[in-house]
Amino acid sequence: MSATRKLSPADRFLRLFTDIRAGEAGTALLLTANVFLLLSAYSLLKVLREPLILAGGGAELKSYSSAGQALLLLVAVPLYGALAGRYPRRRLINTVTAFFLICLVGFFLLARLQAPVGVPFFIWLGIFNVMVIAQFWSFANDLYTTDEGKRLFPIVAFGQSAGAVLGAFMAGRAIDWIGLYPIFLIAAGLLVAGTVITNVVDLRERRRTEASRSVTESTATLPAATREVRLESGEFRIADLDAERAKGEPQKPERAEPARAEATRKESGPVARGNAFRLVFQSRYLLLIALMILLLNWVNTTGEYILGRTVSRAAAEAAAIGLGPGQTAAEVEKVIIGKFYSGYQLVVNLLGLVLQLFLVSRVLKYLGVRAAVMVLPAIALFGYGFLAFFPILAIIRWVKTAENATDYSLQNTVRQVLFLPTTREQKYKAKQAIDSFFVRAGDVLSAGLVYVGSQILALQTQQFALVNAGLVAIWLIVAFWIGKEYTKVAAATAA
Question: Most C-beta atoms within 10 A of its C-beta, which of 203, 252, 457, 465?
């Protein structure tokens, strides 16, 4: 239908960056604004996190605290899955967001009372980041077919990169103007605004894609996690994509008789096939994605430890020689670390923004998902190999800048595209498990590596870099395998 409509000015503008069709700009821009606000909030809180955790206990405590996040997610992910199996998607998103808003206000009040919130806030922020962002992308995946998502996700993900840039920029100014703790409330306001946009998009897209469905069979009433999948035609059907992938024979959508349609509706509604973790382990495709995410975060978090340890030592040395009247070494160290991470994250996010705007859609269009999923591990392999020979702060900073900028742009878009040809149950349940628990499981493995490496083996920076290079080699193999599986799974929704 969109092919016969006239392109709006917004459609024509977005065509500079991706292959957009008539009428698609409105929802794409709203989703872009939505994730922009979410990432602005997270980036503000991320800069606030660093001085609270590093000055309070150092890079080792920061690494060990990741284990607490993974343990809590063992409870949080099944709970989220239970809500997704009961609530429609809009109510699900509003409920989860309200919980995190209450937590932000609580942290602000505790911090103003000088309570030691560094470790609890670090653990909470890690859970907030993975669950809220995963929830947004589950929602975005639920709106688009595979073809639509591949074309439009580069635009939507631009909002994520832009939000990260604004958040880092705002944090650096906020530390000077209003201090650390009011940042909690600024982030809460951004989160509220993002939730309002989510509700607007939900109403808009149900009118567009579900006009032929009754209210009782629509996403306004059915739980978020059903066994439906959207075909390229836009139709919904019940699917077992793994079985179809194995056979290599995608089933054609059927027009069910009334009695059968009612039975199908009940099967795809409140009755879920399994919990989030079971869904992951039942599917080879999802398990490979989970393994990739685990390895990615293992490597990235160990790299953050390398950077954090080096920054902490440099800040301690600078604080010792730059102490002013009435200042304590801890206060000066917090400010130095905060300003370093503000500048560092600003550069990372600006580079990610440029990559997202001008490179990502072209990589997906001309090289495809199979090649795109291997770009980040290739960059990481080169970077950590280089670090093994030149372990100084300036080089560590730029290796991590290249790695994180690619992660925030191309890699982030690709990992969202990988979920387009999956069922709604897999999008809301399995994706939440992968993007939260398996992310933090990588952090836990990194924490174990940090403990053994620093406390038992006394590894130096270059030795940690060599270990990371070995992990990246495994990651490359997994990424290659995922690319092959994606081609098969996507074929099952092309009918």
Answer: 465
Residue 10 has pLDDT above 50, yes or no: yes
2 in a structural domain: no
Task: Report H helices in 210-328.
Answer: 241-247, 258-268, 276-282, 284-321
Task: Judge if 431 and 472 occupy the same domain.
Answer: yes
pLDDT-derived band at 417, boundaries 50, 70, 90:
very high
Q: Which residue has the tokens 């997994």?
A: 478
Classify residue 333: in a domain, yes or no. Answer: yes
- The span from the CA of 419 to the CA of 133, in Å, is 14
CB 190 within 8 A of CB 34: no
**Do residues 200 and 254 share a domain?**
no
Q: Are residues 236 and 207 in the same domain?
A: no
pLDDT of residue 179: 64
**What is the mean predicted confidence (pLDDT) over 61-76?**
74
What is the C-alpha separation between 319 and 316, in angstroms, rounded?
A: 5
Quote the DSSP letter at residue 228.
Answer: E
Domain, as residue range, for 310: 23-215+272-491
pTM of this structure: 0.81
Domains held by the chain: number: 2
CB 174 within 8 A of CB 44: yes
Amino acid at residue number 487? T
Map residue 237 onto helix, strand or coil: strand
- Shared-domain flag, residues 247 and 105: no
Q: Is residue 249 located within the same domain as residue 107?
A: no
Q: Are residues 256 and 211 in the same domain?
A: no
169: number of CA atoms within 13 Å, CB side? 10
d(CA 162, CA 39): 8
Clarify whether residues 115 and 237 are in a common domain. no
- Residue 145 and residue 231 in contact, taking contact as beta carbons nearer than 8 Å: yes
Q: Residue holding tokens 């072209």?
A: 362
pLDDT of residue 461: 85
Give the closest residue to 290 by CA, choosing from 413, 403, 433, 116: 433
Please name the residues in contact with 226: beta carbons below 8 A apart, sequence gap of 6 or more: 268, 269, 423, 424, 425
Of 137-146, 163-172, 279-288, 385-394, the poorest mean pLDDT is in 163-172
Q: Are 154 and 18 in contact (CB under 8 A)?
A: yes
CATH number for the domain including 308? 1.20.1250.20
CB 479, CB 373: distance < 8 Å: yes
pLDDT in tens, 186-213: 889 999 999 999 999 999 888 887 777 7
